[in-house]
Design goal:
461 residues, alpha+beta, Phosphomannose Isomerase, domain 2, 8-stranded antiparallel beta sheet, 13 helices, binds zinc ion
Length: 461
């Protein structure tokens, strides 16, 4: 039988928000294994590298030039019977590298039930009837918006930023403040429900603002950001905003307005958590979580689906009423949006790996379609052996150089190389770098699906 290790050729999309030319990690990675007619153009944006079987941009086996989709359909043992019975003859997940220069649309992904309804009603804008949980791991410093800010922060902005208050309306702002005042931190369920209802009301009123009002308010907002950034700040002893520095807040508003002039998203910003991730830090987006990516290079893993409900920072179809109805309106500090990795017990490290502080960390969101293991092998000779699992994997190298071995097949690995590893195959990776200095780390991310029977707590219910 053929050894289940395939080097993949992966395509890169050229959306307008992508980083340009060599700046784009997605483009550089794609170029390492590209078709012969691919060269990185200096002025062109490159947004997303796609690794998987999605028919819109399917990865290919380098050796035979067959699509991975074709190969797993032909040989379902590559996926495992369990996975192919449950998800059909394709990968349950789509693995990507995103290189973000300009904000992506403010969006949320429907849960399974809503996805079915939207798809039945409007199949053109909602092409799938599936949910789309997403996980993001930063490869370079990342900025994004995710979930609603703690209520005290929202109240602060409503009071400090006059154009925001005008846009939502004086009455709506007063009503909101009256309900949440003194109850911002309450953990009483009835109180929290009242807070969420109040948040839904004021947020919906913002989202339904008339275009001419948005334009007038955004002119005022940008003038404030440019001329008196201090007005974005809080007084000593008052609530801390995120970011805490008013100049930084004002800078983000100015930058976003440069990307999307007069966009409603400029005001949505004051309702959502601003989140920054350092390389290796992650966040998981549950169904119905509002979010937007602002900048950075990231690894993204998602269930294989294309359902997005958008409302701002986008020229695409917007569906504000669906968005405002579907959100959960949970509000929490950003620390609660992050997904902390834990040690992955199914990797064995050799002595060199141990002594150099190498690690294999598992990012395990509460869904069954995917998990990701990040492995750092810190010195030449450091080696990690992954147990075979009952499901498929895709591995990408983001740093350093090494080798990958399955059975008696060994392949060289460099930054940007992507491999498919079939079900049940034990896989060994090794750092083969020059061994000089601290820059010799060999880093890989391995996305996989293994059906362990863990409940689909978040999205399925
Ligand atoms: Zn998303």
């Amino acid at each position: 039988m053929q050894i289940p290790l395939l080097r993949l050729q992966c395509g890169v999309n050229s959306y307008d928000w992508g980083k340009v030319g060599q700046e784009s990690a997605a483009a550089r990675y794609a170029a390492t294994t590209a078709a012969s007619d691919f060269t990185i153009e200096a002025e062109k944006p490159y947004a997303e590298l796609w690794m998987g079987t999605h028919p819109s941009l399917p990865s290919k086996d380098v050796e035979t030039q067959r699509t991975l989709l074709d190969m797993v359909q032909d040989n379902q043992a590559l996926l495992s019977t369990e996975v192919s019975e449950r998800y059909g003859s394709r990968l349950p997940f789509l693995f990507k590298v995103l290189s973000i220069r300009k904000a992506l649309s403010i969006q949320a992904h429907p849960n399974k039930k809503l996805a079915e309804q939207l798809h039945a009603r409007d199949p053109r804008n909602y092409p799938d009837d599936n949910h789309k949980p997403e996980m993001t791991i930063a490869i370079t410093p990342f900025e994004g918006l995710c979930g609603f800010r703690p209520l005290a922060e929202i109240t602060h902005f409503l009071q400090a930023i006059e154009p925001l208050r005008k846009l939502v309306g004086q009455q709506a702002a007063n009503d909101f403040e009256q309900i949440v005042k003194g109850n911002e931190e309450s953990e009483d369920e009835d109180v929290m429900q009242r807070n969420k209802d109040a948040l839904r009301t004021i947020f919906t009123s913002l989202m339904e603002s008339a275009p001419e009002n948005i334009e007038a308010a955004s002119n005022e907002l940008v003038a404030l950001a440019e001329n008196s950034p201090a007005s974005f700040g809080t007084l000593p002893g008052d609530v801390e905003t995120n970011p805490a520095n008013p100049r930084q807040l004002a800078e983000i508003i100015t930058r976003l307005n440069g990307q999307f002039p007069h966009d409603l998203g400029l005001f949505v910003f004051f309702f959502l958590n601003f989140i920054t991730l350092e390389p290796g830090e992650a966040m998981f987006l549950k169904a119905d979580d509002i979010h937007a990516y602002v900048s950075g290079d990231i690894i993204e893993c998602m269930a294989s689906s294309d359902n997005v409900v958008r409302a701002g920072f986008t020229p695409k179809f917007k569906d504000i009423s669906t968005l405002t109805q579907m959100l959960t309106y949970s509000y929490a500090p950003i620390e609660e949006q992050k997904l902390r990795p834990k040690d992955y017990p199914f990797t064995v490290l050799n002595a060199t790996a141990y002594s150099s502080g190498s690690s294999s960390l598992l990012y395990d969101p509460p869904i069954e379609e995917f998990s990701v293991v990040k492995t750092d092998l810190n010195r030449t000779g450091a080696k990690a052996t992954f147990d075979g699992i009952v499901g498929p994997s895709i591995l990408i190298c983001t740093r350093g150089s090494g080798s990958i071995t399955v059975g008696h097949k060994t392949e060289e690995v460099k930054e940007g190389y992507v491999f498919f590893i079939g079900a049940d195959a034990e896989c060994v990776i090794q750092n083969t770098g020059s061994g000089e200095g601290e820059d010799d780390v060999f880093t890989t991310y391995k996305a996989f699906c293994e059906l362990t029977g863990k409940e689909d707590m978040v999205n399925g219910h």
